[in-house]
């Protein structure tokens, strides 16, 4: 099988991990992003979400991550809860 060199995508958008997600007084959540063109930083836009939109995204991500083991540094909501009798719930 022939392997091809990994190409840098023309456009990339990712969460700017060095800036926190914030919540305004009106409840709007701001998710800082990073936009790059062929790996070169072009802009720092933000994704604005209402509480309902953030809840919907959270639920969608939970479903998408179902079955994946949570990393050690994952938030508590991703870690299994052990109940008496050995039953686990997520």
- Rounded to an integer, what's the Rg over CA atoms? 18 Å
* Biggest beta sheet attributes: 5 strands, antiparallel
- How many structural domains can be distinguished in the coordinates? 2
Shape category: extended
Unreliably modeled segments: none
Tell me the span between the first and last alpha carbons: 41 Å
Mean pLDDT over the full residue set: 85
H/I helix tally:
1
Percentage of residues in strands: 25-35%
* Overall SS class: alpha+beta
Biased composition (Basic and acidic residues): 7-25
Region (Disordered): 1-25, 68-90
Question: What would you say about this model in short?
Answer:
With 90 residues, the chain is an alpha+beta fold. The protein folds into two domains: 9-49, no CATH class; 53-90, no CATH class.
Describe it.
Helix content is 17%, strand content 31%. The chain has one helix at 51-65, and strands at residues 11-15, 22-23, 29-37, 40-43, 46-49, 81-82, 88-89. Strands 1, 2, 3, 4 and 5 form a 5-stranded antiparallel sheet that branches. It has 2 domains: 9-49, no CATH class; 53-90, no CATH class. The chain is of the alpha+beta class. It is extended and about 55 Å long. It has 1 helix and 7 strands, in the order βββββαββ. The protein starts with 10 loop residues before the first strand and ends with a strand. The model has no long low-confidence stretch (mean pLDDT 85). Residues 1-25, 68-90 are annotated as: Disordered. Residues 7-25 have a biased composition (Basic and acidic residues).
């Amino acid at each position: 099988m022939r392997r091809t060199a990994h190409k840098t995508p023309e456009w990339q958008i990712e969460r700017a991990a060095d800036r926190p997600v914030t919540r305004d007084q009106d409840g709007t959540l701001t998710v800082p992003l990073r936009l790059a063109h062929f790996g070169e930083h072009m802009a720092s836009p933000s994704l604005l979400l209402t509480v309902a939109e953030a809840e919907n995204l959270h639920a969608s991500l939970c479903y998408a991550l179902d079955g994946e083991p949570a990393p050690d540094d994952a938030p508590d909501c991703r870690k299994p809860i052990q109940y008496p009798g050995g039953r686990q719930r997520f």
